[in-house]
Structure formats: C-alpha cells, structure tokens
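Hello again, I could really use a second opinion on something today. For a while now I've been wondering how a particular protein folds. Please have a think about how the structure follows from the sequence. Here's the protein in full, and shout if anything looks odd to you:

***
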Amino acid sequence: MKGNGTVPQWYLAVAGDTEIIGGLGVIENDFHNRRDLTPNVCAVYTEERWRRRGVAGALLERVCRDMKARGIDALYLLTDHTSFYERYGWEFFCMVQGDGEPELSRMYVHRL
C-alpha cells in the first residue's frame, strides 16, 4: 500500500489478484516505553494456510529494502517470539515494557 511519507507504511502479500495472505506495517512506536527506538515493524501476520512458505520472510526483506531506500538506517520490532526473526537478520536488542503489559517483551533491531 502506498504512502506519501516514510512512516507509517503498510505492506501486503497477495496471492493471485485479490487474496491477501499476509502483511505488516511500519509505525513510529508499537506501544512500548522506549520511544527512542523508532520506527517499528508491527502486525507481522501470515494467513495460517500460507505459513512456512516464506511469506513473512519476503515481507520483512521487502520492508527492510524499502525503508533503507527511504533513508532509515535501523528498524525495531517488538515480539515475544524467539528464533524466528533471527533467520532474517534481526538481532535481539533489549527488553522493553509494552504499554499496559505486566511482562517485558523482546525488542529486536535490524540495521539497514
């Protein structure tokens, strides 16, 4: 989906002409206390029947290329998952407090 500014941006993976099979966004802050860690990749999702086919990986690679072309040098991502994002060049950065969340969550960085 095309946006005029750098952030926010939304990306969709489409099968055929109309079936949306995955997506993700880039926003300033994904509802956590580290406002300095920006922009954030958010809402990474792949429809269940399309999982384990590289859809999320392709979306992550695309957003990294696109943000680099827009002059961004690092992206951040808040998640409770381990080992998935490392496959695509993301590195654990620190633990952060999600807004209204009792437990800390993992913050990853991808340097572009």
Observations:
- The chain has one domain: 9-111.
- The two ends are 21 Å apart (CA to CA).
